[in-house]
Amino acid sequence: MKIVMLDGATLPVPLPALPGCTDWQVREQTAEDAIVSALKDATVAITNKVPLRAATLEQLPALRFICVAATGYDCIDLDACRARGIVVSNVPGYSTQSVSEGVIAAIFALRRQLPDYASTTRAAWPEAQHFCLHRQPIQDIGGATLGIVGKGDIGQAVAKLAQALGMKVQYAERKGSTTLRDGYVSFEQMLASSDIISLHCPLSEQTRQMIDREALSKMKPQALLINTARGGLIHEADLAMALQQGQIGGAALDVLSSEPPAVDNPLLQPGLANLLLTPHIAWASQSGVHNLIEGITANLTAFRHGQPINVVS
């Protein structure tokens, strides 16, 4: 069984070879025009973000299993995999603790104005007239309303941590839905009533750019937007304009629509001081990385034994 990982450099530690597997290759990265040659005669492909679409899969007759080294699997053409009898598994839940804590950290950073104070204190404090230096208004976390879009494992973990801090939590119904599930508020009500909005839903044609100019206009003037899910959930030019004009209070983004982003991405422009931007690392605590590698190994082992687990297609 030939196993090839297409983007091993996305892991901060090496992926250990599957015990007993003699044909094992971990490539640091694979360009799209090199995928077919990289997977020639491979039975198993491991990919984090390298896309495997129908046109590519048609040229890989030996491929029988795809292990996505992540929870999200929007880089895989599931319909094409089903048609070709290719099993696809992901690694669910490995980053729940890491990402949920990252969301709470972002809330503290923005509500407490930590980036601004940390970046200006060394120069500004010696010039202050009093023992403390008031630059930006500081808001409490307790009592704030958190709107969560997506009630999966991570969304629920964020809710649990937020409630422990005294926050009020509400889950948003799907955008455009005409029905309201028990325990949910409408998407529009969530936008209008939340002090913080955190995105935890998959990227699909229904959710793509769900946060656009119209949605941003319905948010509170001091509301915060947090995205640790997929960058494509947000219309980036609209968000950049909203931040620039002070339409919302700020944003914390761990993901962008293209990664790495183009240098002209509107959210990379200078002057967006109310934007906290990190390079897709909310998942990457030491426990998150350990859980991911354990999950990949478990998926490969189960497939080799003819009993695949965590199957999404």
TrEMBL record:
On the tree of life, the source organism's domain of life is Bacteria
Supply the CDD domains for this chain. Answer: 2-Hacid_dh_4
Give every D-isomer specific 2-hydroxyacid dehydrogenase catalytic domain span.
23-312
Could you tell me which residue ranges the D-isomer specific 2-hydroxyacid dehydrogenase NAD-binding domain spans? 105-282
List the PROSITE patterns.
D_2_HYDROXYACID_DH_2
Gene Ontology terms for molecular function: NAD binding; oxidoreductase activity, acting on the CH-OH group of donors, NAD or NADP as acceptor
Iron-sulfur in keyword set: no
Q: Which InterPro entries did the record assign?
A: D-iso_2-hydroxyacid_DH_PdxB, D-isomer_2_OHA_DH_cat_dom, D-isomer_DH_CS, D-isomer_DH_NAD-bd, NAD(P)-bd_dom_sf
Instruction: Write the signal peptide boundaries.
Output: none
Any one Pfam family match given in the protein's UniProt record, by short name? 2-Hacid_dh
Q: Which UniProt keyword terms apply here? A: NAD, Oxidoreductase
Of which family is this protein a member? Belongs to the D-isomer specific 2-hydroxyacid dehydrogenase family.
Name the chain's protein.
Answer: D-2-hydroxyacid dehydrogenase
Source taxonomy: Bacteria, Pseudomonadati, Pseudomonadota, Gammaproteobacteria, Enterobacterales
